[in-house]
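Practice set, problem 2.
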Amino acid sequence: MPSSHGTRRRPRVPAEENPAPPPPPRRGRSVWRLLTHNVTITLVVLGGLFATVALVDLDGLGGGSDKPPPGVSDDLSTNDMLAMMTSSDMDSIAAGVVAQAKKNAYEKQQRDLKALREKAKRDKKAREKLREQQERERLARSNPSAGQNKKYARKMAALKGWDRCWDSLETLWEHESSWNERAENPSSGAYGIPQALPPEKLASAGADWKTSSPTQIAWGLNYIKARYKDPCGAWSWWSAHHWY
């Protein structure tokens, strides 16, 4: 028999027709899960490695816009440079022979120019000839590869311990040839960056002396050492005499 104090039934709550959707996941947690995912971490690490390699390659390629002269490698090693300078080493007597030839050629050129200028004052044809000669000399000195040739020379001069004389060497050979490995004096026939005279003297530094700027530079540095001790001395002499 049921007791008058029996269990009461809870009132029935009617179900909602459209229950509310679960709250969306927080955006911050999704981003964090994405960033800490193994695949994401791997991609980030690989990306960093590729970027590093790209920077190294670009740095290696960014050594300058000047290209080496035709037939000359741009990866000339220190040993190659030393070998060139050793093979073309000369004594003071050999350097003196070259210097005397250059002196004679310079003095003859100056006499010829003086006579031509005197004649040009009176003769139209002589004036035209003078202009033609000046233009030939200008073209002989023009040189698109001067920047690369200077890089070779600076390294090779440094191997001789001539860092302090670089400005002198740069100015000296700028006057002589504008750093053109194919420069040829139309009057004397002196040839190359150091203006060797006779030109065949350059062959002692290498068979490619006609076109190779490192070969010519090696010979020129040894000539300077034998005759003037260093480029500072060579430039000092040139400044007083206009030949070296």
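Problem 2, part (b): a different protein.
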Amino acid sequence: MSLTDRAIEQIRELIRTGALPPGSKLPPEPELAAQLGLSRNLAREAVKALAVARVLEVRRGDGTYVTSLQPSLLLEGLGGAVELLQGDTVALLDLMEVRRLLEPVATSLAATRITDEQLAEVKRHLDAMRAARDDVEQLNAHDAAFHRAVVAATGNETLLTLLEGISGRTLRARIWRGLVDDQASGRTLAEHEAIFEALSSRDAVLTHAAALMHVNHTEQWLRDHLRNADSLEAGPQVAPVDG
């Protein structure tokens, strides 16, 4: 562990133990450095790193504060990282695998907790998807909102942030564009309908099955799409000629 990493860990420990609770202001740099037994340069570097991680917020002319430490804030960078992985086939498939592991469980949990108002919101986005079945941009927006509303019904903000992060706006748009071109959007809309109907019945097992079916089909489409793209990129294979 480098000296900077150790300095970061010391500040994290103050936050973990409650010595620096959410919303609190850090001591001035010289005082913080002395308190932690660090040089001012190390203290400064540690604060910068934690600010990048959204753990600390530097307010110019005011000081440095511990943020709210909400999952939605701390995990905010996940979505940006996923967007950077769009050209990495292995990474995309890994992300879909993670989604397959998490989303059906989250959807199942939502079935046991969703309110009538939350169910009505899911229905609004489903109706909007059907109305925009040939408009990739609108389909993508309401698809994301549909799943967000479902997972939000779990009341688990960390789960919501993780699933939103790994879905990826660019990847979702890419999938919808392909589904529309392949005339497979109708089937995918029907899968969303099945998820909604299962949620309406508050049946956790049925909801899990509907969500798993949907994610599996999406993952399989992506695998086929990536495989075809690789084949096209490789070009025609010429068989060797016997002499």
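Answer key, part (b): The mean pLDDT is 87. The beta strands are 56-59, 63-66.
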